[in-house]
Specification:
Helices cover 45% and strands 19% of the residues. The chain is built from 9 helices and 10 strands. It has helices at 2-22, 100-104, 151-155, 191-206, 216-246, 251-262, 264-281, 287-303, 321-355; strands at 40-48, 54-59, 64-69, 75-78, 84-89, 92-96, 126-130, 134-137, 161-172, 175-185. A 7-stranded antiparallel sheet has the order 1-10-9-4-5-6-7. Strands 2-3-8 form a 3-stranded antiparallel sheet, with no helix packed on it. A hairpin with a 2-residue loop joins strand 5 and strand 6. Helix 5 (216-246) runs antiparallel to helix 9 (321-355). The protein starts with a helix and ends with a helix.
């Protein structure tokens, strides 16, 4: 009976892992090419002259600008050669198919090949891209496009540096407006400290698998693993929600739409960890398998997938980067630790079954 249950649980675990791995690719496409972390902090200082109802902010850890126009009039964003690029107004968001910025701004690197009709001198050809009054776009003027940091950063990497003050021109009818902002380089954190804390923590959690499952201490250890997975899974759900909010999602519907279209596997990983934790707390059959599988997915899709925050100073979430690092460390500690503990308990159960004489 034990071996049959182990075999069935193993097949279920293998199928679940395969499905997760095969479907993991779409999660990497969240927010197009939004970074998992960066050392460049972009900020909007304001719109000059100010227009009530016209707001601009930085989203996706500085990868995009978001402009919302509730003035009741159309406002144009001007491209890199002085041509109309975007038009945002009561009738929706339009892009000029003749503007080179329309194509260059499709990627964070700005390396999209230009079509033959991309001519900034040509009259605008407007194409509707959204029915709302909010536009989001990469803008090379607010980014540092080079892989090598600026010279002043290389000379003193331990200090924060102002890379540049940037501007993006707008037009309200015939009136010129300007989005103003700053771009700073912020020294990254000490990644070794965060990895060391994570490793020590996951070893401590993994050691829970050394307690004999049949003993009272083993039962308490399983309950502890279950509680950790419930908490870790809940936090793992909160992290992609935060990423969606940072990417500009508004309201419950906007967040859910972003999660289901771009971060479905991150969401399922968190929910799966909560379910496995509850399963362990109830001491259900094959709970050790559930703990090991959920821990592996949590470590991989919530921990490793977001570990860039250990080496980057700006995180793509609406809370502080320090909180983001604590969350990712918790994913790794709980995930890897639960996997190790579950495997140890499974191995002990397998040995005990092998040593039990057949009737």
């Amino acid at each position: 009976m034990i071996r049959t249950a182990l075999a069935r649980a193993g097949l279920i675990a293998a199928a679940a892992c395969a499905a997760t791995l095969l479907g993991a690719a779409p999660a990497a496409a969240h927010g197009a090419d939004a970074p998992d972390g960066t050392d460049y902090r972009a900020r909007v200082t304001g719109v000059t002259p100010a227009r009530p109802g016209l707001t601009v902010r930085v989203i996706e850890a500085g990868a995009r600008l978001e402009l919302t126009n509730d003035t009741g009039r159309a406002v144009e964003v001007i491209g890199y050669s002085g041509e109309p690029y975007l038009r945002i107004g009561p009738d929706g968001v339009f892009e000029n198919t003749h503007s080179p910025a329309t194509y260059l701004n499709r990627t964070l690197a700005g390396d999209t090949a230009l079509p033959a009709d991309a001519d900034p001198a040509a009259p605008p050809s407007w194409r509707r891209v959204d029915d709302g009054t909010t536009a989001r776009w990469h803008d090379q003027r607010a980014l540092w496009p080079e892989s090598m940091p600026p010279a002043q950063v290389r000379a003193a990497p331990e200090r924060e540096h102002r890379v540049r003050d940037w501007t993006v021109p707008l037009r309200d009818g015939t009136d010129p407006l300007t989005i103003g902002g700053t771009l700073d380089w912020v020294p990254p954190p000490d990644a070794y400290t965060w990895w060391a804390v994570s490793i020590v923590g996951l070893l401590a959690v993994g050691a829970l698998g050394l307690f004999a499952a049949a003993a009272p201490a083993g039962a308490r250890a399983l309950a502890g693993l279950g509680a950790l997975l419930v908490v870790g899974g809940a936090v793992a759900v909160a992290y992609p929600v935060g990423r969606e909010i940072d990417a500009g999602a508004q309201g419950v519907g906007g967040v859910l739409s972003g999660l289901l279209s771009g971060q479905i596997w991150s969401l399922l990983t968190g929910l799966g960890a909560v379910a496995a934790g509850w399963y362990a707390l109830r001491r259900r059959p094959a709970a050790d398998f559930a703990v090991a599988l959920a821990g592996a997915c949590l470590a991989l899709f919530a921990g490793v997938a977001n570990a860039a925050v250990f080496t980057r100073s700006v995180a793509p979430v609406p809370w502080s980067p320090e909180v983001a690092r604590v969350m990712v460390a918790a994913f790794l500690i709980t995930g890897v630790g639960a996997t190790a503990a579950g495997v140890l308990r499974l191995h002990a159960a397998s040995r005990a079954a092998a040593l039990t004489p057949s009737p």
